Structures are given as C-alpha cells and as structure tokens.
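Hi everyone, sorry if this is the wrong subforum. Our group has a chain we'd like a structural model of before ordering constructs, and none of us has done structure prediction before. Sequence below.
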Amino acid sequence: MKFYNLILVSVSFAISSAYAQDSKKVYTTTSGEIIFSIANITDKGNEQGSILRFSPVFNFQNWVNFDKSEHFGYFTGLSIRNVGFIYDVPANSDVNYNFPNETNVRKKFRTYSLGIPVGVKLGNLDDKFLFVGYELEIPLNYKEKTFVNGDRIDRFNIWFSDRTNTFNHSLMAGVQLPLGATLKFKYYLNNFFNRNFQTTDEQGITIRPYQNFDVNVFYFSLNFGLLKNNHFYYNE
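Answer:
Right subforum, don't worry. Here is the predicted structure as tokens:
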C-alpha cells in the first residue's frame, strides 16, 4: 500500500507543479469508453482463467489537459467506469459457498467506480500521441450475478460494499488517434476483492469467501471523443 501511495503522491505533485508553472494550453476532453476485460485468477492456489467481458455502458471520463509544449503534457480528471469479470467457478471454490455441489456455476462480478487519473502525454498533442498514467478508483456499487446451468438464479448489488477494497490502484497506457479516438490498456495492481470480507452460508457458518481468491483485472478499451472543452470533437 505504501508503494501505491508513493506513486499517487509523486504523480500528483508532478501535475500540480506543471499547473503552477502556467501550462501553454489548458483544456478539457470528455470521452466514452467501451471496455473488454479479463482477469488473472488464483483460486485456492490454482491458476484459473476468466471469460472476456464486454461493457459498453456506462463509462465516461473527463480529462483536464495541461500541454507544456506541442509534444509533451500532463493530464488529470475524473471518470466513472463499469469494470468486472466473468468466472466459471469450480465446485470446490470458496466463492461457490451457496452452491457447493454444483459443477456448472458461472459468476459475473462488476463494480461501478469513481476514478482519478494522473499521467503524461508524449507525441503530437494535436493529432496522435502516447500516454501513460496511474489511476486511483473508489468502488461505488458492487454487483454479483450467479448462473447455474445457464439460468440466472441470483443477483444483488450493494452500494459501498465491504466485498471490495476501499481503493483500487491501476496503471494505464494507450495511444490517442485523430478526432479523439483512443486505444487504452489498463491493469489493476490490487485484488478485486476484500479478502477479509465475512458472510454467513446457508448452514449459518461464518466464512470468508474471498480469503483464498486473488483476482487482478486488466482490460483494453476503445474510447471515442465526445467534447473538447464545450465543442464536439467532430465539428472539424
């Protein structure tokens, strides 16, 4: 956690310094995001795979851009993002506590999160450029769905759930193309779940379903520019 905090403080200081030095150009960009996510999963010490998840809604980000020159700049801002993963759960998994005898159980997990990105841009900032950055995300709403033999038999969502961490940390990299189109890759550094979360199974026994469940989500996304300041990207 100290490592993540050091990254956040260092990059935030760089952004603040750039702003204090009067950037050459300051403007906002607003875009939507279509996300394709998958996860690295270790379940009770065994590496498992996940299924590609498609989430076109509702993902929006607004960047405040500080261009120091034509080829170098910083950005920060706010985002709202729908990120999760799909997992075919083995019968012996602790995550399968409600259906321990079922062998065909699929779970879909997702969070809606508020994000605060900080990063740098390199290239022709009026056309095509590369960017890298860090993003702190705060999960707002957690949803979990359970399917047995293809039929959905359970679904719930919780605001500010204890099932997830208070903060998520991620690294991102991408390339911006003309007219606000962007290809982005993102990797979450910490576990999707709070491993200390406790619940009660059908026999009334208190368990920690995520104690032996490590999940690191990563995704690639297609972003489409909506606004630059208060003008549509496609006016040109």
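For your construct planning: The chain has one domain: 2-235. The chain is about 10% helix and 60% strand.
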